[in-house]
Amino acid sequence: MKEEIIISGFGGQGVLSMGKLIAYAGIADGKNVTWLPAYGAEQRGGTANVTVIVSDQKIYSPILNTCTTAILLNQPSMDRFLSRVKPGGTLIYDTYGISTPPKRDDVNIFEVNAMDTAAEMKNMRVFNMLILGGLLKINPFVKLENVEKALYKTLPARHHDSIPDNMEALRKGMEIIKEV
Amino acid sequence: MEDKRECYLMKGNEAIAHAAIRCGCDGYFGYPITPQSEVLETLSALKPWETTGMVVLQAESEVAAINMLYGGGATGKRVMTSSSSPGVALMQEGISYMAAVEIPAVIVNVQRGGPGLGTIQPGQADYLQATVGGGNGDYNTLVLAPASVQDMADFVDLAFQLAFKYRNPTIILSDGVIGQMMEQVFLPPVKPRRTEEQIWEECPWAANGHRLKQRKPNIFSSLEMEAVSMEQRNIKLQEKYELMRQTEQRSSTFMCDDVEYLFVAFGSVSRCAEEAVTILRQEGHKVGLLRAITLWPYPEKELNRILPTIKKILVCEMNSGQMINDVKLAVNCQRPVYHFGRMGGVVPSPDELVDAMKGIIFDKN
Fold this sequence. Notes:
- By secondary structure, chain A is of the alpha/beta class.
- Chain A has helices spanning 15-28, 75-81, 114-120, 127-138, 144-154, 163-176, and strands at residues 2-10, 32-38, 47-55, 67-72, 85-94, 108-112, 178-179.
- In chain A, helix 1 (15-28) packs across helix 5 (144-154), helix 3 crosses helix 4 and helix 4 packs across helix 6.
- In chain A, 48% of the residues are buried.
């Protein structure tokens, strides 16, 4: 298997950390991973993105032109990356962040109403976990228990009490993802 | 063979910091700059001064940092610095001075797009600066080009070994992709820092005290008033560089057994080229890759070894065409050599390399 994932959104939406969780969970699954951020000016209010590859083979290039899965959380990201999803690939977007819904017949498109759900849960910080839950529902390429392990690895100890909320959001995301 | 060591997920810059502590580095002196700031950040977080006794110091500038290396290296200590392109440009005077008086040290350059302040995105445009001088005078530095986070971890100790073997500054020429990306990495085994006694034994040239005239004081000065004496020092240096050329060339090949069309690349671009090779092989083209691991000395022996089956060579770099000079010199007009480059911080994708290679495969000229 080889999953090539591009995650893109506003800085602060948890784009890079979502990628990190996938990468850690991939390693716990015994896979090879690369995690390559687009950093710099893009982290200061603009669009941030990360390319994550999870594979059971050796990974050559960490840089991709196209991907098997795109998670696009704002309109600039949609405009930039929609055409880069491989035919037969998966596209997930947040309903709130997108003004022009994507049109492609050769790609499986899903939406997660993550912003509104996070607001209902009164915890905006689980936004990215709702999205990640949605992804793992339609493509369980890493085990849920390894995502939990990854949370313990990536979050500083003082935030470990928030892990149950994050796992709840992950399961909630699995419920609310809808095929478009 | 399965590796039993613990596997970590970390950035290349973080791997450099961990590796420095583990290989018994005595001192790090540096100044923050994107995209390599995690080196100093990680060292500061790990606090090696509380464990191994390694000194970590944020210098007031890159110029100060490189001169701290001159001082530390002159006492026989394992010292290193890291920076990115504009910062390394500031260090060139110090590197020339260290080369002149044969002080070992490790300098890491996590390159970004230039010239000038340029961008904070990845680049490889400091190739010529690293391989043909940068500072003044006839000198060379050993240059290692990592292409993975594992290389970042492994090359620190290698760079120190080479620096001390030849008493010469050694540069790890990385780039923003390798510095910023995370991959799994097995950290090198822990080696203790050398004791003062060991340094006294191993580095008779060091300025670390003459112990009541047990040996004559060692003095480091690159200034000679007599041209003839300076030429003698140059001759001695050139003999050393020639020995390094003969002994230290490093490279790796990928799918080169029957190769007709060869990619030559280093650093992160060599990873893209590997992907491009697999794509082109699936389409039936006999394509392979030579990855230069040492950029100086250049791996010309390996390039010439695989040359017989090769028809054309495509050099791919994140610059306007710098390593291509070394490839042309090594091949010596025996094969056509082409170039593909992106500049200023733009990272080429494997697809661009595939298209560029197809361009030369189907070009009948």
